[in-house]
Amino acid sequence: MTLALAVDISLTLLVLAVAGWIIAVRDTFAAVIGFVAYGLLLALIWVRLAAPDVALTEAAIGGGLTGALLIGAAGRLRKTEAATRAEYPGVLIRTLAAILAVTVAAALAVGVLALPDPAPTLAPAAVASLATTGVGNPVTAVLLAFRSMDTLLEAIVVLLALLGVWSLAPDRAWGGYPGPRHHADPDGILAYLARFLPPIGIIVGLYIFWIGADLPGGKFQGATILAAMWLLVIEAGLADTPPISRTWLRVLLVIGPLVFIAIGFAGSITAGAVLAYPEGYAKPLIVAIEIALMPTLVLTLALLVAGTPQRMPPQ
């Protein structure tokens, strides 16, 4: 057995074991920590499958951002978890759940195994048209040229999710500061990390964002790193979240989708179709869209983790 095969088998068994443990464990916080580990393991699997873009997204969004949101939710459920832990589903419910899970898993396995060899793919067509976009990263070309409508809707959905979180705020706090005001020991390890890591994280995040046009990376991965650095500073009490009534905040939140939509509709005039790019201008327009989306995504992701406005708006 080669070393690569041994690593692949070990990763597969470890992912299955962690997934089973997440389902079986009764403690919510423990399940969330398992989910974060599960996401990081999936990122390693995507690396083994030679898909670095997907690996970066899984580590940043799947394991990082989603894990942070679930940790916050688990913390809010601590008070009620003791009561719900005493409840245990009956034999019938557990049996039906097991049958459903096995059926779905079997259907997925049959669907994958029934694919012809080689499996149908649009990869050759995408690679053949890559030169028309001017970018070197096929993933970026797919996301912002060949299926740009999906990417636009994803950005809008993330923004709508933030508005949904804000809508849960009490009336007295509307327009106020999201989340509590954090305080930490100014000489403690958290404050030290909040001073040491953000300069490095900002450089890494901006680098991953900028190279995304030609190499693995992109706006979502870079924005997640920048949002994490901002949240670290907030958690250490070195800064506060901005009140959601600030005009500059609302402008930056909508600027990305608005620029995307404007360039998309301009394509109907300059290139004959909505979300099409005129010949020779595809890459500059793609880069312009990503630059406009960057602050939108950074603010949206960070404020999603911060939660609902809880403190009165400034007078």
Automatic annotation (TrEMBL):
Its main location: membrane. Keywords: Cell membrane, Membrane, Transmembrane, Transmembrane helix. Residues 13-78 form the MrpA C-terminal/MbhD domain. It is found in: Cell membrane. The chain crosses the membrane at residues 6-24, 29-49, 55-75, 96-116, 122-145, 152-169, 189-210, 251-277, 284-306. It comes from the Bacteria. It is a multi-pass membrane protein. Residues 189-308 form the Na+/H+ antiporter MnhB subunit-related protein domain. Belongs to the CPA3 antiporters (TC 2.A.63) subunit B family. This is DUF4040 domain-containing protein.
